Amino acid sequence: MKCMMIGVAGGTGSGKTTLTTRLKECFGDNLCVISYDSYYLPHTGMSYEERCALNYDHPSAFDTELFLQHLEALKNGESIACPVYDFKEHDRSNETVLISPAPIVVLEGILLLTDPRIRAYLDAKIFVDTDADVRVLRRVVRDVNKRGRTMESVIAQYLTTVKPMHEQFVEPSKRYADVIVPEGGKNAVALDLLVRRLEHHLTQALQEQEEADKAQ
């Protein structure tokens, strides 16, 4: 079955995950979601303190080669073993999650649109645009409540790497987007338009698969 890949990019705390969650709720097993954050490079041999000091908002922080291999596999109808990243330990875990191909594949990540090799796989490129003050507040709440960080460490990371990398890489990648969505999953109008587009693709893909099955 033909696979449609949607890229959802935007700054930290912009609402990317909320948008992808809404889409997953709409399409269920016909849609799978892959987070680019799962593909942070492993840091075997580094101490916890050394891992904490790394810049996780630069393109070099990601295992993009593995990510591209997995995108190719999904396009070819093959399952992948998606890595699992431990944000509390700042390192890749030994676990993987089996992700099966689906008619709709949603990729989500802050730097998703910065790499032309990734963009080449995307049938639609979405940039979630949210005010910086809202994004930083959401990040503080998330990192303190869900990732075991201190307020001081979150603020320090934001000022030293997150903000400058956003200005250098994330914000400029907006020009590659086909659609810019203010406020992500909370934008009901944009969500409705996106759902309608994906429903059209899904109907078409299922019809083509049915015709192919009859021809065999």
Automatic annotation (TrEMBL):
Q: What is its EC number?
A: 2.7.1.48
Molecular functions per Gene Ontology: ATP binding; uridine kinase activity
At which positions is ATP bound?
G10, G11, T12, G13, S14, G15, K16, T17
Gene Ontology CC: one annotated term: cytoplasm
From the Swiss-Prot or TrEMBL record, state where the protein is found: Cytoplasm
**In which pathway is this protein known to take part?**
Pyrimidine metabolism; UMP biosynthesis via salvage pathway; UMP from uridine: step 1/1; Pyrimidine metabolism; CTP biosynthesis via salvage pathway; CTP from cytidine: step 1/3
Keyword list (alphabetical) reads: ATP-binding, Cytoplasm, Kinase, Nucleotide-binding, Transferase
What range(s) does the Phosphoribulokinase/uridine kinase domain occupy? 5-189
What biological-process GO terms show up in the record? CTP salvage; UMP salvage
- Keyword Oxidoreductase found: no
Q: Which reaction does it catalyse?
A: uridine + ATP = UMP + ADP + H(+); cytidine + ATP = CMP + ADP + H(+)
For the keyword Signal, the answer is no
Q: What family is this?
A: Belongs to the uridine kinase family.
* NCBIfam families linked to this entry: PRK05480.1 (NF004018), udk (TIGR00235)
Protein's recorded name:
Uridine kinase
Which organism's genome codes for this protein?
Answer: Candidatus Ruthenibacterium merdavium
What lineage, starting at the top, does this entry show? Answer: Bacteria, Bacillati, Bacillota, Clostridia, Eubacteriales
Q: Which gene encodes it?
A: udk
